[in-house]
Amino acid sequence: MIKRILLIMFSLLAAAVILIPISLFYILNNGNPYHKHLVNKHIPQHLNEKEDTIEEGIYPIIG
Prior knowledge:
Elements: H1 2-30, H2 33-58
């Protein structure tokens, strides 16, 4: 029973030692996929709102 518990613990440790550097390497090279999703979802809406306020408020329309 103790051998089985030790085998499970060492397996989990080995998986963590292997998967953590691989995932960090991926995130450093490609960026965080969740952050990319949020940026692609919210930034265009924000820029469209800011574009409307810039056209209306800061510069007068000549012509």
